[in-house]
Amino acid sequence: MKRIFWLIIGIAVGVYAVTRLKKRAQVLAPESVQESAAKLAAAVRHFGDQVREGMAEREAELKDALGMDAAPNEREDYR
Questions:
Q1: Is the dihedral of CA 15, 17, 20, 21 positive or negative?
Q2: Which of 3, 21, 44, 74 is close enough to 70 for a disulfide, judged by CB 3.0 to 4.6 Å?
Q3: What mean pLDDT comes out for the span 11-32?
Q4: HSE, side-chain direction, 13 A CA sphere, residue 22
Q5: How far is CA 3 from CA 7, 9, 17, in A?
Q6: What is an example of a Pfam family matching this protein (predicted)?
Q7: What is the pLDDT of residue 76?
Q8: Distance CA 31, CA 40 (A)
Q9: CA–CA separation, 37 vs 68, rounded Å?
Q10: 3-state SS of the chain?
């Protein structure tokens, strides 16, 4: 009776371990890694776009504040 009990416990633990290992293998599979890298690249690209947009807005604000929006020959020369 004890042997059957331990056999059943061993089978249950084995099935549980195999199930967990399969899930872990799917997470670490190259497709998952590639998908994660693609998500990271998209996030970095989006961040770069946001930074460039903010820089352009700030540059326009500074040019407006300094009166640099006019054509080069219409501006006052501050030299």
A1: negative
A2: 74
A3: 86
A4: 6
A5: 6, 10, 21
A6: DUF6167
A7: 60
A8: 14
A9: 42
A10: CHHHHHHHHHHHHHHHHHHHHHHHHHHHCHHHHHHHHHHHHHHHHHHHHHHHHHHHHHHHHHHHHHCCCCCCCCCCCCC
Length of the chain: 79
Q: What pLDDT is attached to residue 23? A: 86
| Nearest-5° Cα angle at 38, 32 to 41 | 145
Mean pLDDT of the chain: 85
Q: Is the pTM of this model over 0.90?
A: no
**What single-letter amino acid sits at 1?**
M
Assess contact for 25 and 18: CB atoms under 8 A. no
Is residue 47 within 8 Å of residue 53, measured between CB atoms? no
